[in-house]
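Progress narrative, work stream C.
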Amino acid sequence: MHAMRSLDDLLAASKWAGALSAEQLQRARTAIFVRELQPGNYVCRKDDPSNVWVGVIDGLVKAENLSDTGKSVTFATFPANSWFGEGSILKREARKYNVIAVRDSRVALMPAVAFFRLLDTSIPFNRFILTQLNERLAQFIGAFEHDRLDEPEARVAHTIVDMLHPQLYPNRECRIEISNEELGHLVGASRQSINRALHALEKSGLIKIAYRAITVLDIEGLRGFGG
C-alpha cells in the first residue's frame, strides 16, 4: 500500500497553485479542508449546494447519477491531482450529480468564498478555470459522440485517452489504476465487454494490462483507434 499523499502534494501538482503569489497560495491553502473517504462515501450529493471546489489528493472518486429504475450512470472519474466542480460553483446552482469515492480517497475542499476570492484577484487562476471549462466541454462532447458512433473497443480506447488528459488529470504518466468494473461504469458496458475490449487493445500493442491497472504504450494509436 502506497503512502497517502498530502494537500501539499496536490497543490504542488496544480498549475493554478504554482501561478499564485506566496500570499495568495497560503491564504487559499488555509481555507481548504481535507476529508478522508472510504469506498462508497459521498464527497457531495445531488441537489447539495455547490459551495466547494473539489480536488483529489489521493484515490479515485466518480461523478454519477441514478435513474428512476436505479441504474447507475457514471459521467466521469477523478484520480489524484484532479480538480472539478468549477462550473456548478460559477453558476451557483445545486449539484447535478453524486460524487462518490471508488476506493480509499482523500479530497481537498475549497470553499466557494475562497474560490471567488482567487477569481477576483488572480489572472492566472482565471485562465486556468477558463481552460478547465473549455477542456471539460470538449471532453464531454467527444464522449457523447463516441458513445453513439463507436464500437465497444473504440469506446474503451477513447475513455482511456480521456483519463490521461494533461489539463484535467495532470501527472498521470501512462499508468491508470482502475478495475474492469470501474471502467465498465465509466464506459457504460459490462465487465465482460470491458475485458474483451482491453485484451483486443493489448493484442494491438496499444496497452498493457495488469491487475487493476492499465499502462498505455501508444496513446496516439488509442486516440485514432476505430477512426
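Work stream C, second folded protein:
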Amino acid sequence: MEKLASLITNGRLAPSLMITHTFHGFDQIPAALERMHNKPADLIKPVNYCDDLD
C-alpha cells in the first residue's frame, strides 16, 4: 500500500486509469457491490459517486 501511495503521490500512477465502472447516487450502491461480488472480467475498480447530496 505504501508503494502504491508513493506512486500516486509522485505522479507516476494515475488512479483514474484503474476506474472501469462508475455509479452515481446512493441508490446505486447495491449495484456497485453486486458488480464487485460477481466481478466480471472487465472490472478493475468501480467507483460510486454520491453526488445526489442536497
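The two ends are 34 Å apart (CA to CA). No further action is required on this item.
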